[in-house]
Each structure stands twice: as structure tokens, then as C-alpha cells.
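Ticket #4471: structure export looks truncated?
Reporter: QA, pipeline team
Priority: medium

Steps to reproduce: submit the single chain below to the structure queue and open the exported record.
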Amino acid sequence: MKNIFFLLLISAVQPALAQTKLEKAITSLENNYEQEKVYILTDKLQYAAGDQIWFKSFVFDGYNRSELSTTLFVELYDADKKLIDWKTVLLTNGEGSGDFKLKEDLPEQVYFVRAYTPYMTNFNEDFQIAKTIPVYNPNSTKTLEISKSSDWSAKAFPEGGTFINGMPTKFAVRLSSNISLPESWSGKVIDTQNPNVPVTTFTSFDKNIASFTITPAAGKKYQAIIQDNAGKKQTIDLPEVASNGVSLQVSSSKDGIKYSLKGINLKQQLQNYKIVGTINNHLAYRANINQLINEASSLIPTKISNGANGILQLAIFDEQDNVVAKRLCFIKPNDLKIDKADIIGKSLKTTPRSFNSIDLSPESYFKNYTVLVSEDDGNKTPEEENILSSLWLTGDFTSKIDSPAQYFSGNSNSEALDALLISESWQRFDWNLVLSGSVPSIKNNNSQKFLSYRIKPLKNNAMLKDTNVTLALKLGKNEPSINLFKTDQNGYVYLNNLSFDEPLSVSVFVNAEKEKESSTENLFVTVEPLVLPTPFKGNFPTTKYRLVTAAGSRKLAPTISRAINTQKNIKKTENVDVQIEEVKLVGKKKDPKEELDKQLSTGMFSSINSTIFDFVNEDQHVGGSNNIFDWLQGRAAGLTFQRDNSGVNVPYIRGSQAKLYLDEVQTDPSMIASLPVTNIAMVKIIKGAGLIGDAVLIYTMKGNMKSKSNDSEKATQNNNLAIVKGYDKPAEFPIEMIDNDSPTKIENDTRETLYWNPNLFDSDYVPPRIKFFNNDTSKQYKMLIISFDEDDNLLYDQEILK
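Actual output as written to the record:
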């Protein structure tokens, strides 16, 4: 949404003179306060240890998808702020996706997903998203339960921030809690000199907010007494009644936002007062009062936001450019600008394991969709948050709001939203600081688009300054490209604005001196990333969960029992795949791989239930891999990797950490990770066999053994080589069908997430098709579709399909 500058003069225009303090502040605001926010969508609300978390990220600059950033860091933490895993996500038009694979032995507790761009680290860390993810594990000694405590506090906020003698004033009463809020509450306002006769009463709109209006009298003291549905009470003082000031009243309708000002006991009445409206830190409206009047009002048209929804911050300035009143209000709360998906066809069945499809129109202005289809259990529990509440509300506020999605649902209460905004203040900037000339310190200014690196070549431990060097860059299995560079006066070469998701090998060669051969001897290279994650300094938000000692006869929630059963089904499928491959080998003649296995393996390390990779007799194309763990990813069924705290990939087989052996001596991951890949003769993956159990065995070259890898790959395996990791490539969500006639004999398909596609798009007017297989129990489906067109108009469609 592009904001429009709107200027209103309530009387004659004065000649433009030197720029005022306020005008300088507005210019500074426009130039220095561009800010981003993030929304993270996950495929489920809670998980079991061993599950895969699928996520889609949306980065906004105001109410538009951001063009500021191309990189997003998404990090998974436990409740003690220990970093579990992290992803570097490529953003395209402000959107990116990824996944986390949870370990099977992950302790049951609340985890947090933190997401931020490098540019966001210039501003308050509190505006970075920290999404709560409860993870359950029936083997944990502690279990999660929802706290029943309702320890709350209340505050009262006058509209505009002023409470003036004789002026009707609307108040918002806001409850807050570190845990949970009462279901309902009510209250009354009293004059402390006559406490037995209520001045007025009020009832909460929802758990968060209530409102009332009173006209105060000078010299009186007012209090609000709040009582929740459990009988708990709290008494709070209303502000002291002022004898002078500016009263601000605001109302929002489909035509715009109407405001009324009244000045009480002002020396020059409202003359030279200014009204400034901002949307997302940009000037959207301005009016000057040039007459000697005590009252002024106007309607701000919706064209200030191009008719789109959002929050307008109104600030009233006196003749000295001091803020004397301010108010937040929502533009068109009863007319949300949201498109729905254009479905042109669907074939839905409720029989177990049936194929289903939904076709979207290829003629829509929306071309790229995020789609989630899950089983709907018939429970009509309202969602707590969604992309609407994040875009228009919580993304811009750091206070805790209970179930913010309710303010943008089909039965939302615009009065409740308005009262909530009276209780909030815009914290993206502070007018007093901006007026004083203060500007944020921008350290990460997004000059590094995508990923950038600083390369430091060393020859005989000395920096190579102002030296001609050759870089051989090899991405994955592609042929290397040769590039000529000259190091700068500090001895560095820079690779800027790279976008890649495969290992990038960087080899450095120094041009030969006159009458001397070029040599890589004593030549070393290091690569330093310039786009880096930032340590988390703050505290995660409190949650409604608490950890208690698990009971002996623990009862799991149905969704968690189903998730655990789904994991077992996946393991059965993987086991069958392995068994089929083993059967294929029976009766074959001995081949070189078998001979190598016989030569290197002894005793208990020999097993038919193993997968072998031969590096002596087969070209395994290892040149683009930093270490053997990187090369192994995705090459063996059931074998996955998780990074430990030192950044080393650790192997897991069927969700359990595998043992590691180097030449049949048990070792640790860091030892294997530092081993040159060209020194490896064979890798063996053993799954649950004999005395060893799940294991990864690494065997090094012996005697006259030589690697089968081609010469160009071997040439890069020197000290002058560094491997660079780029963006994390999202895993592909499986379109699963568990057939009744399958040899796996899966008896109960319990998948909750039936379809996940963060990037469904149309091509050449072929209808985008959502296709998935039913599980064994679904009778109706819950479908969520999110999309943006070229003008950043939002499509948000959540339906129950039968």
C-alpha cells in the first residue's frame, strides 16, 4: 500500500518559511525509519518429537511484502534459549519457506521459532517474531499442561491521552497477564467521594479489553473496579483530571476517519496547532489550524491508504511542536480488503486413502499460492493468530494480545478493536526523539543483497595484498568457473550478492611469478560470510504452558498420538524400501564393492542390513562437498542430519542419533567432519543390526588404494579450498498415499497435514491444482490459501470442505 500525502488547511495558507522542527522531524521519519516485520505460518500448531515442522515466512515493509531484504534467518530455540537448529531462507518478493526436522529424543517443552532479517537487527529486538511451538514427547519425564492460573492486572487509558474537566472522555480498560486472562470480566467507575454510587459500568468485549465514557469534574478522583468471572477484583486509579488541554475524539467508518478537537483553557486556543497522521512511519495526512478557534473537526478520507486497511497514528502538536494528544485508529474495520480463492473445480472424497483435487482459476490476478490442507476434526475452536492479525496488529506491537485473530474474523467487533488501539501506542518510533533530531543507527543497511563473502588468501602465512589471484568457483556438481581478481590493500577479495542453495567450493590460485611455476603449496584460503545471524539477547514471551512431572499412566492428546503413529508408518515404509534393495542383491555375483567391504570390514561390523558407498571403485562426485556428512545428505533412506551447537551435522537413523566409527573405532562428529573426503575409501550405513545398532562407519584409504573421483575434483581438495554454505534448500513435502495393498501393511493412516505447498503457481494458463490423498479418518478438510497479487492485494481464504 503506497501512502498518499494529504494536506488540509483549516484556514488560509501561510507563506512557506524556513523548515520547522516538526517538518524536519517528518522528513527524518520518511528517510530513516523504514522497518520490516515477519509472519511465520507452520503446518500445525503443536508437534511430537520426531516430527517435521514445515514453515512459510512472509516479510513485510509496512503492509506490503518487503523489497528491502532477500535473506531471512529462522532459528529454533528451546525454553532455555539454547539454539536447536537454524535456517538461512532465501526471500523472493518477501516470501520464503523451509522446515525443521525435530529429533526423536527432543525433551517435551515449549520451543520458539525466532525469525528476522539482517535489516531488522537495526531496531528493537522485541519486534522480531518469536512463535511458540509446543513439542510433546511421551518418553519425557516432564509433560506440558495448560496453566489454569489467571493472575492479571489492569490499566485504564483515556482516548488521546487526555482527561480534562467537563469533556466526555472514552476510556479503554486493558487486562494483561503473563499466563492467561479470565474468560470474562466487568467493572464500574466510582467517584472516591461517593463510592457507593457507580458513575458508570462496563463489560468486557473479550478477554483483552472493555471501554466506557465519563465526563469528569475538576477536583474529583475516579477509580475503576474490575472483577473477573472467578470473583477476583482489582481497583485502579484513573488519571488526575486536568483543567486545560486538548480533547481528541476519533471514529472510523467506511468513508474515512473522523476526528474532533476541542481546546480547553488554551492561551491561543487551537491556533497554530497541527494534526499529523502517519501510516507505517510515513506521512499520510497533515492539517494546520490557522484560526483562533476552540473546536475543529474533519473527515480523513480512506484515499490516504489507497482504500486499504491498516493503522493510522494521529498526533496533535501545539504551536511549539510539542505532542499534546495522540491516538491510534484502524482504517475501515468493517470493510476488510481481502480476496477469496477462485475455485473452478474440485473432486473431494471422504473414503480412506482416496485421491482429492482442487483446481484454482488460471485467470486470477493471483499467481502464486501458499496452501495448507489438514483434516478438520469438527472442533470449531477459533484460531489465535493468522497473517491478518500479524500484518495489521501484532507485527507492530510488542504487548501481548490474547487471540489477536479475533479482531479480523467474520464476527469481529470493531468497537473492541478500537478500544484495543486506544490502549496501545505506536512504538516503531517516538515523536519526542524524532523531534529532537535523533535517528536510528543503521548498521545493516541491506547494501549486501542476498549473501556476500570476504575471501582471505594466505601464502606462507602472509596476506596477499594487491595481488592478482584466480578463483575457481564450483557450485555443486557443476563445472568450475574461473574468475580473475586482485586482492585489495588489506589482502581480501569480495564475492557479493550471491544466491545459491548448493555447496560452493572456492579455490584460490596465485598467478605464477616470472620464470617460476604456479604452485598451491603453503597456500591457504578462508571465507568469511558478511551476512550473519545475530545472537538473541532478549527473553522469549511467557506462555500458557507449564512443565510438570509426568504421571505414570500418561494420556496423550489425540493429535500427538496420531503424529507418533504417523512417524511409525514412515519408518515402516523406509524399512520396506531397504529390504527390497537387499533382496535385489541376493544371488548376484561378487562385485568390487563387496570385495572392498570384505577387505575393510571385520567381525561385528559386517551386516547384510547395510548400505555401502564405494569411493575406490566408483566415482562418487565428492568434489563439491565440505565433508562426508554434507555429501551423505539425502543419499540413504532413513538417514538424516541435525546440526549440533558447533555447527557440525550429526547423523540420525530413523530419528535416533547414530553411532560413528572411523576405521571401526568409535569417534565423534567433529573428527569425521574434519576428515578430507578424498581420504575416504568406503562409507557403510548400518540400521539396527547386531551389537552395533544404528551406525555410520567411515573407512579410510589403505595401501595402494586411490579415489575414483575425477582429477578436477581431486585438484580442489587442497588447503587452498574452502566450502561455502548458501541458503538452506527447503525439503519437498511428500504427496503420500498409503495403499491397503502396500507391502508395508500400514493399518492406520493418521496424517494430520495432508497437503503443504508454500509455492503453488500456475503456468501457461494451466490451472493450479491442489492434490492430496485422504488419511483413514477425514470426513472434512480444512483448507488455507494465502496469496498476493502484483499490487500486494491480499488473498486469504480459510474454508471447511466436505
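Status: closed, not a bug. The export was complete when the record was re-opened. Leaving a note from the reviewer for reference: Residues 558-585 form the longest helix (28 residues).
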